Amino acid sequence: MTAPRVGVYPGTFDPITKGHLDIITRAAAVVDKLVVAVATNGGKDPLFSVDERVAMVDADMADLRATGGVVEVRAFDNLLIHFARQVGATVIVRGLRAVSDFEYEFQMATMNARLDSGIETIFLTASERQQFIASRLVKEIGRLGGDVSGFVSPRVAERLRERFAAEAGAAKR
Q1: Domains of the chain in sequence order
Q2: Catalytic residue, candidates 94, 135, 139, 159
Q3: Other CB atoms closer than 10 Å to residue 69's CB: what's the count?
């Protein structure tokens, strides 16, 4: 019996979008178990805390789990290759939206291969309907009162509305 193939899909997920969900669903079909790794990543000044992002990602995994997908959601704050080893992953999954993503992702994949040649990086291209979705754009649209429901799950759209309403209330004080 072979060991289960574990993959890691890392990201900030601030917030998780339908583009992320597309990659997660497709990646879960390639590996036996997928660990969605939510990066602490304080340098990006996230809108949501790491605990909030983990909770949102975990809630959005319900449909995938209901259809048999084996997905775990965990926060991490160390080097990705160390986290991958910690969870027993042999695959790192990265999503590509556009050619502009490739150079950075290629450099990261090459560096990770130098750090641990036993962990392979695979790239999944965003599906045509999701290519343009970026968390930063979703936040900008939401912050300016636009409708984000086409880009995120209903749960995440509600969390964004709540957060921006709270920010607006705080700014008025």
Answers
A1: 6-131 (3.40.50.620)
A2: 135
A3: 17
